[in-house]
Amino acid sequence: MRRSSPLSSQTVRAVVLLLLGVAACRPSSAPPAPAARPSTSPVPPGAVPLVPGLPPIPETRGAPVALSVRYPSSNQLITARDSNFLLGSVGSGDVQLMINGTSVPVAPNGAFLAWLPLPAAPLPRYELIAVRGIDTVRRTLPVRYAARRSLPASGTLTVDSGSVLPTRGSWALADELLRVSVRAPRNAAVQLIVPNGSPRPLRAMVGGAGEAVFEASADPTADVGALFATEVPAAWLGDSARPAQLLVTRNRDSLRLTVPSVRALSRETRVLGSLRSGNRVASDTDAAVSARTIVNGTYKWQLLPQTVLEVTARQSGFTRVRLDEQLDVWVDSEEIALLPEGTPLPRRVTGGFRVTPNTDYTDVLIATGERPAHHVEAEGRTLTLTLYGVQANPEISPLLGSDSLVRRIVWEQVTSQRVRLTVQLTQPAYGWLSLWDEQRRAFVLRVRRAPVIDVARPLAGLTIAVDPGHPPAGSTGPTGLYEGDAVLPVGQLLVEMLRERGARPVLTRTSLAPVGLGERGVLARREQAHAFISVHLNALPDGVNPFTANGTSTLFYHNASEPLAREVQRSLQARFGLRDLGVHYQNLAVARPSWFPSALAEGVFLMIPEQEAAMRDPAFQRKYAEGLLAGLENYFRWLRAETTR
To answer: Read out DSSP for 514-546?
Structure first.
C-alpha cells in the first residue's frame, strides 16, 4: 500500500476503522482542528506498556544525551484534530524528558512515545527538553496544520475558489445530475447562473444537528464558512463558449466565479474505451485493471485488459465505465484507451459451458465472443462468477459428475445484461484465475485443486511464498529501526524453517532494494506458490492514540484466504500476548492474486518502544517466524480435513 507518512504501516486501517472509527495505513484525511486541552488517554503520556510475551527492553545508562525525534519531522503537516503522538529517542534510559511542559516517560533504552495535545496555532511547535544532571538538550520542533482560508461573516466578501465543483476536464452523461458546489461565508447567498441566464439557488449543506457543515481549520477561532451545493443536469454545464457562473452575494457585495464546463455525453452516441493494464511486470495471466465503486476508492473488480466498455464520465483522473445497465465503476484514466467514434459496443452471448479437467486445475470455458467484465467471489465450496454485459444461451445446463473438483454449474440470467454462474466444488475454494482464450474467443475460469497434504508433515512438497514487507515505504520505530530491515530477518528465518519442514520457500526480496507490490504476487504465481504470507509491522496515522490501538492483527483480501489469516492470527496471538486486533478484510495489493491463499501479518507495532526493541531481539524474530510457520501448518491441516470429508 502506498504511504504518505514515514510512520504509516501496511494494513492497520481496517482494524482501526472497526475499533476506533478512524482510518489508518495513511494519515487521516480529516483536516485538523487543534485544541490545547489535556489528553483523555487512560494511559499516562509516553508510558510503555508491559507485555509478558515480549522481551524486556535492553537498558542503556550513562550514554550521551542525544535528542532525536522520528515523528513528526520538522514542519510536518499534522492531520490530527486535537492530540497526536511523538516518538524518538533521548539516547539513554536515565534521561528525563519534557515536551511542552509535560513529563514524558523514557524507556530503558532511551526511546520515548508521547501522546499530547496539539500545540496551539498560529505557530504550532513542540518544545522538547532532555535533562540528566547538568546536561540539558533542548529542541524546538515546528509543525504545520492544513491551512483553510477564513471566510468571515463580515468585512470583505471572500470565497474559496479552489472548492468549486465540478473540476476542469469532467465528463458526464448529458441528463445526469451533477453536484455544483462552493465554499462561501455562511451568511452569503449563492446562485448558479446557467448559460441561458436562469438562476438556481445553492443551499448550505446541513449536518445532523442542523448546523451548516464547514471544514475544520488549524485556527479554531477562524470562520471557514459553509459548503453551498445544488445538482443540475450535466447538459446545463456543457457550453464552453458560455460557461455557467456562480454568483455569491452578501448585502451589496457580490462575486462571480466561472464553473468549469463539462463534456456532456449523449446517450445516442456512445463513447467506448478499451482497458489496458499499467502493470508492466505482468504477463497476460497476471495483468488486470482495478475498478472501484467511487473515484480513488478501494478496488473491487479485477478486469481483463482489452475489455471494451462504454465510458459514462470522467473526473479527477478517473474514468467511469459501464459494466452493464445497472452498474458503473471507476478505473484510472491512464488504464483506458478511447476508441474511434462510431465503434459499436460488443455483443456478448454465451454458448455452452465446457469443463476441462487437468492435473492441478479444472478449466470452466464460457464462449462469449468478446472479453466480458466479470467478478469472482469465493465462499466455502462455491465460486460465483458474474459476467456483465452478457446474455446466456448455453446449449445445456451442465450437471457434472466426471470431474473430481467441479461438481456442478448453475447459471442464471440475473438481468437482461448480467449472468451469474455458481460453480459448486467438492472442496473449499482454494485458488482461481480469470483468463481469456483468444483462439476460442472464450472466458476461462481456471479453478485450482488443493494440494495433496500429509497431516504429519503438512508443508512437505508445497511452495510457500514469503514476503518481507517493504521497501518502498514502511514505518520506523523510536530508535530508528526501519520496518524493511526488521522483517527481513523474520522472513529469512521462516524460509529456513520451511525448508526443514520439506517445503520449497520463495522469498519475494532478499535485500533492501525496493520491490513493487504487483511484482510480489506475480513472482508467487509464476512459482506456483501454494500460499503467500506477507510479514509486516504496524503503525498508526495522525490522531490515533497508540497506547489504546496497538496489538496484533492479520489481514486478507479474498474470502478464500480467511481461514489462513485466522490460523496465522491465532498462532501469533498465542506467542506475543498483545491485544487481539483480530482478522479483517483489507484492500491489499499483495493479497489480490487469487491463485493461492494469502495473508498479511501485522505482528507488532513498531512505533511502541517495547515492541520495537523486541524486533531487534533475534529470539523474538524467531518467535515471529515460528508463529507464521505454525499458522501455515495449521491452515494446511485444516484444508486437508476439509478436502477429505
So the answer is: ---HHHHHHHHHHTT-SEEEEEEEE---TT--H
